């Protein structure tokens, strides 16, 4: 095996590189109806006729809109959706991008049901290494100049996606211990 430089034992950094075997987790999922919305209520809502199930019918139509946007690969934030197209992004500085998108919902009007679409903007972190984002966000030259207290506040609850596994994680905090001293 790999040995430390003095050949007396395993190299500590090699221990950190060993991947843990993937453990499958089994989840029990139970799906139950929250409410039943009759098809006639949806048809009436589309014609603009308000019935006792009107709000539920409109909610079903809004859900269908969201699902359609999700299937097209849009980023969904509540009733807003954002296409992953470079022309929709604008650099606002500090490692942050403004992303243009749309807010959509069905609304009852005097002439029937209307699809309401408004422009919407959200902020996202520029894709790339987290350290590069922090350097840009704090406007410093290198990682040694970072204010780690500020970095901790900036990163807390941020969702990040890793490559190439494409797994998503939520940052819950930063370790006080340097990486070379961490053990798992």
From TrEMBL:
Where in the numbering of this chain does the PAZ domain appear? 129-184
Recorded hits in PROSITE patterns, A to Z, give: PAZ (PS50821)
Record GO terms (molecular function):
RNA binding
The record's section on Pfam families has:
ArgoL1, ArgoN
Say which domain of life the source belongs to.
Eukaryota
**InterPro entries, alphabetized:** ArgoL1 (IPR014811), Argonaute_N (IPR032474), PAZ_dom (IPR003100), PAZ_dom_sf (IPR036085)
Q: Which CDD domains match?
A: PAZ_argonaute_like
Q: What is this protein called?
A: Protein argonaute 4-like
